[in-house]
Specification:
The complex is a heterodimer of chains A (about 325) and B (about 425).
Chain A (H helix, E strand, L loop, with lengths): L1 H31 L3 H6 L16 E3 L7 H12 L11 E3 L9 H41 E2 L3 H13 L6 H10 L6 H25 L3 H9 L4 H12 L1 H17 L2 H6 L8 H9 L6 H21 L1 H14 L1
Antiparallel strand pairs in A: 1-2
Chain B lengths: L2 E2 L5 H4 L3 H25 L2 E3 L5 E3 L3 H7 L3 H25 L5 H20 L7 H28 L2 H19 L6 H33 L3 H16 L2 H11 L6 H9 L1 H12 L19 H7 L7 H11 L4 H9 L4 H29 L3 H7 L12 H10 L4 H25 L5
Helix pairs in contact in B: 4-5, 4-6, 5-6, 8-14, 8-16, 9-14, 14-16, 16-19, 18-19
The chains are: A mainly alpha (about 325), B mainly alpha (about 425).
Chain lengths: ~325, ~425
C-alpha cells in the first residue's frame, strides 16, 4: 500500500514539474488563436471547443473593426477603393467570444515564413559543409600521423578553451571589411567554422574506433583516402554524423546574436532575430505574435518527432563529451 | 594504429593536408584572427573604422583603475620575472650567480623607468627609486612567505589567501579610480551565478525521481516529454517569458492580481519594509530597478534544463538494482539513498555542469539584451560585462574599450578554467 502511494507521489511530482515546463508552450498556443479582445478578457484559459466549429452567421465587416481578420480585409478593401455597402465589401464570419481566430496564423506566416525559409537555407547549407569539412579533418587526425598533425590538433583544441565573448566585436569588423554584412553567406560561414572544433573532436574519437584493418585493406586495394572516407567512414559513422547534424541544426536555428548584429534587411533575417523584431512592434497584436512563436517552434518539433531516438541519445552523449 | 608518414614520404602524401585545410583555414580566419585582433585592438582608441590610435594601457586603466603604486609593482614584477627567466637558466648553466643578474637587470630597468616615468608618477627620480626598492623587497618577501605557506598549508587555503590579498590590494589602491559600471556588472554576474547554482537543484531532483520509477516504460515517456520544452527555440521561450512580465497585460501580473497572491506580497513587503510592492499598482517586472534582477532570476521557472535532466539520467543509469535492495535491507531512508548512492554517481556530471554553468554565466548577455535592451534595464542595473562590451562597441562606438572588456572577461574565464583543471578533477 505504501509502495503505491510512493509511486503515485513520484508521478505527481514529475507531472507538476512538467506542468510548469509546458505552461509557456500551452499559453503560446492558447493565445495564438485569440483576438486582442479575447486575450484581454481571458488571457490564458483556452477558448471553448464550441467556438472551434465555424459559426455560419455572416455579416459585412465594420470599418473600424478590431478583430484581426476584419482589420486586414477592411484595409485591403479600402486600398482597393471600396466603401462599406459596395458589392465587393468583405463579408466576415460573425465572431463570438469563443471563435478561434486561425487567421492569426495566416498573418503570422506572412512574416515568419520568410524567416523560416532563410533559417532553413542557412542551417542546411552550414550543416552540410560543416560536416564535410569536419569529417575530412577528423579522418586526417584519426588515420594518419602527418608531420605537423600534433600542432594542428592543438590548433583546434585550444579553441575549445577560448570563450566567444571577446571575439564578437573584431568578428563583426572582419565581416564588415569582407563586405559580408547583411548577407546570409556570412551566417553560413560562421556556422561552418563555429561547429568545426567540437565536430572534429567527437568524430576523431569515433573514427579511431573503426577497425584499422579496414583502412589497411582499402589501401592494399588501392583506394584513395577520399574513397576511404566515402565508402568506409561515412557508412560506419552515420549515426554520429546525423546526431551532430541535428545538434548543429538546432544551434543555428537558435542563434540570434550574429544575425541580430549583421543582418539589416527584414527579408534576410533568420528566425530568432526576426522574432525579436516581431516582439518590438509598438502596438502588440498578441494573437499574431504568439501564432508567430508557434510557427517558429513547429519545424523543430516535427524534426523531433521523426528523430526522437537520435535526439535523446545525441543530447546525453554529446553533452557529456562536449 | 594510425599510419605514420615521415617527412621524406611527403612527396606522395602531401595531398592529405587538403583534408584538414578547409577546416583549418576557416578556423584560422574566423576564430583566430578575431581573437588576435581583439588582443591587438585592446591597446587602441578605436571606433571600429577610421579612428585608430595607439594608447597603450589606457583602456585598461579606465576600466580597472590606475594607481602609481600599481605601476611600481608592475615594473618590479617585470624585473623579477626577467631575472628569473633569464638569470635562472644562466645560473644553472654555471655562467653567473643569478642574484647578481637580478640586481643588474633590476637596477637598469628601474633607473631607466624612474628617469622617464617620474613625471607620470608625480615624484622625482629619487622618490621613485625608493618606491622601487620597497616594492621589490615586498615582492621578494611575499614570494618567500608564499614558499613557507606552500609547504605547510593546503592549496585551498593558499588560493583563498592569494585571492583575498589580491582583492584587498586592488580595493585599497585602484577600485575607486576604475569603471564602476564594469564592477557592478561583475556583481550582477556573481548574483546570477549563485542563483544558477540553486537552479541546478530542480534538474537533479527530477532526474532522481524519474530514475527511481520502477516502470521502464514511464521512464522513457518522461524522458521524451522532458525533451519537448527544449526543442522549442530558445528565443521563443525568452520572448514568451518577456510577454509574461508585461506589466499591464502580462500573464504573471494577471495571475498574481487575480488570485489575490499579490495582496500577500504587499502585506509581506509592508512587514519587511522593502517598499517594492504597493497595493493598488501592478509591479512592472522589467521596468523597476529593484525588480529587474529578481525577474532575471525567476525567468524560466521551474528551471528544468532538459539537457541537465538527460545527462543526470545517463549518470544514474549506472546504478545497479541490487544496490537499492541492499540499502532497503539496511533501512536507508530515501534521503540517505540520495546522499550515499545517487549523488556520488552523478557528481561527475554535476561538476561538469557547474563549471560550464559558471563559465557560461560569466559571458552571458544575449538574454539580458533581449529582455531589457542594450541599456541593461532601468538605471543600467543589469548591465553585465558582456552587455557593457556590446554596448561600448555597437552603441557608443568604443571598439577598443569593448575589446579590453572582452579580454578582462576572458581573463576571468581563464582563471576559472585553471582552478577547475587544478581542483575539480573529473574521473572518466
Amino acid at each position: 500500500m505504501s509502495n503505491f502511494w510512493k509511486t503515485a507521489g513520484q508521478h505527481l511530482f514529475i507531472w507538476a514539474v512538467l506542468l510548469f515546463a509546458f505552461f509557456p508552450l500551452y499559453v503560446t498556443f492558447a493565445i495564438s488563436v485569440k483576438s486582442n479582445k479575447q486575450f484581454n478578457n481571458q488571457p490564458f484559459s483556452p477558448l471553448s471547443l464550441s467556438g472551434f466549429v465555424e459559426t455560419l452567421e455572416r455579416k459585412p465587416a465594420a470599418p473600424g473593426a478590431y478583430d484581426t481578420k476584419e482589420t486586414i480585409l477592411v484595409r485591403e478593401a479600402l486600398e482597393a477603393g471600396l466603401k462599406p455597402g459596395d458589392a465587393g465589401w468583405p463579408v466576415v464570419r460573425l465572431s463570438t467570444a469563443d471563435t478561434w481566430h486561425w487567421e492569426n496564423w495566416i498573418v503570422a506566416w506572412d512574416t515568419v515564413g520568410t524567416y523560416i525559409f532563410n533559417t532553413i537555407l542557412v542551417a542546411v547549407t552550414a550543416v552540410v559543409f560543416a560536416l564535410c569539412f569536419s569529417t575530412a579533418a577528423a579522418f586526417f587526425f584519426a588515420r594518419y600521423r602527418m608531420p605537423g598533425a600534433t600542432f594542428l590538433w592543438y590548433f583546434f583544441l585550444v579553441l575549445m578553451l577560448m570563450p566567444g565573448v571577446a571575439n564578437l566585436v573584431p568578428l563583426f569588423i572582419l565581416l564588415r571589411d569582407m563586405n559580408l554584412i547583411n548577407s546570409l553567406l556570412a551566417l553560413v560561414i560562421i556556422g561552418i567554422s563555429g561547429a568545426q572544433v567540437v565536430q572534429i573532436f567527437i568524430l576523431r574519437n569515433f573514427i579511431e574506433e573503426i577497425p584499422q584493418d579496414m583502412f589497411d585493406a582499402a589501401d592494399v586495394d588501392g583506394a584513395s583516402p577520399f574513397r576511404q572516407v566515402l565508402y568506409i567512414v561515412l557508412p560506419m559513422s552515420g549515426s554520429v554524423i546525423s546526431t551532430l547534424a541535428i545538434l548543429q541544426f538546432i544551434s543555428v536555428w537558435n542563434d540570434f546574436l550574429l544575425p541580430f548584429i549583421i543582418i539589416r534587411d527584414d527579408s534576410l533575417l533568420t528566425l530568432a532575430a526576426g522574432l525579436i523584431k516581431l516582439d518590438g512592434e509598438y502596438v502588440k497584436q498578441w494573437g499574431e505574435m504568439m501564432a508567430g512563436y508557434s510557427i517558429a517552434s513547429l519545424p523543430l518539433v516535427l524534426i523531433f518527432l521523426f528523430t526522437m531516438r537520435l535526439f535523446v541519445r545525441g543530447i546525453s552523449a554529446g553533452a557529456v563529451k562536449g | 594504429m594510425p599510419k605514420y608518414v615521415s617527412i621524406k614520404r611527403l612527396t606522395s602524401y602531401w595531398r592529405l593536408y587538403l583534408f584538414v585545410a578547409p577546416a583549418a583555414v576557416l578556423v584560422g580566419i574566423f576564430a583566430y584572427f578575431p581573437a588576435a585582433s581583439a588582443i591587438y585592438h585592446a591597446f587602441f582608441r578605436w571606433n571600429g573604422s577610421y579612428v585608430k590610435e595607439f594608447v597603450g594601457l589606457y583602456n585598461f586603466h579606465q576600466l580597472l583603475g590606475w594607481s602609481p603604486f600599481l605601476w611600481l609593482v608592475m615594473v618590479a614584477w617585470v624585473v623579477l620575472l626577467m631575472a628569473l627567466l633569464v638569470g635562472r637558466p644562466m645560473w644553472l648553466a654555471g655562467w653567473a650567480p643569478w642574484g647578481l643578474l637580478l640586481m643588474v637587470c633590476g637596477l637598469g630597468v628601474a633607473l631607466f623607468t624612474a628617469g622617464t616615468e617620474s613625471t607620470v608618477l608625480h615624484m622625482n627620480a629619487g622618490e621613485a627609486w625608493q618606491w622601487y626598492g620597497r616594492t621589490m623587497w615586498a615582492t621578494v618577501l611575499g614570494v618567500g612567505l608564499h614558499q613557507i605557506v606552500r609547504r605547510n598549508w593546503s592549496q585551498v587555503v593558499q588560493g583563498v589567501l592569494v585571492l583575498y590579498g589580491f582583492l584587498w590590494f586592488y580595493y585599497q589602491s585602484m577600485y575607486a579610480t576604475g569603471d564602476q559600471t564594469l564592477w557592478s556588472g561583475f556583481g550582477v554576474i556573481f548574483i546570477l551565478v549563485l542563483a544558477n547554482l540553486v537552479k541546478m537543484v530542480p534538474s537533479i531532483a527530477t532526474a532522481v525521481v524519474i530514475h527511481r520509477l520502477k516502470s521502464e516504460r514511464w521512464q522513457y515517456i518522461y524522458r521524451v516529454l522532458f525533451v519537448v520544452p527544449m526543442i522549442v527555440p530558445g528565443m521563443v521561450g525568452l520572448l514568451v517569458w518577456k510577454s509574461f512580465f508585461d506589466p499591464t497585460q502580462g500573464i504573471l501580473n494577471r495571475v498574481l492580481l487575480g488570485s489575490g497572491f499579490y495582496d500577500v506580497m504587499v502585506w509581506f513587503d509592508d512587514l519587511v519594509g522593502w517598499g517594492v510592492f504597493h497595493a493598488g499598482s501592478s509591479p512592472s517586472w522589467l521596468g523597476d530597478a529593484s525588480l529587474v534582477i529578481p525577474s532575471l532570476i525567476f525567468w524560466g521557472f521551474p528551471w528544468v534544463g532538459t539537457v541537465g535532466v538527460l545527462i543526470y539520467l545517463t549518470g544514474l543509469a549506472g546504478i545497479d538494482e541490487s544496490v537499492y535492495e541492499a540499502a532497503d535491507i539496511a533501512g536507508a531512508t530515501s534521503l540517505q539513498k540520495f546522499t550515499y548512492i545517487e549523488f556520488p554517481l552523478i557528481l561527475t556530471q554535476v561538476r561538469i555542469n557547474l563549471v560550464l554553468m559558471i563559465i557560461a554565466t560569466l559571458q552571458t548577455y544575449g538574454q539580458i539584451l533581449i529582455l531589457l535592451g542594450d541599456s541593461g534595464g532601468p538605471q543600467g542595473v543589469a548591465l553585465v560585462p558582456g552587455l557593457y562590451m556590446f554596448r561600448s562597441a555597437f552603441v557608443e562606438l568604443y571598439a577598443g574599450k569593448a575589446c579590453a572588456i572582452g579580454l578582462i572577461v576572458f581573463f576571468f574565464i581563464l582563471i576559472l578554467t585553471e582552478i577547475n583543471n587544478r581542483f575539480v578533477r573529473v574521473e572518466k
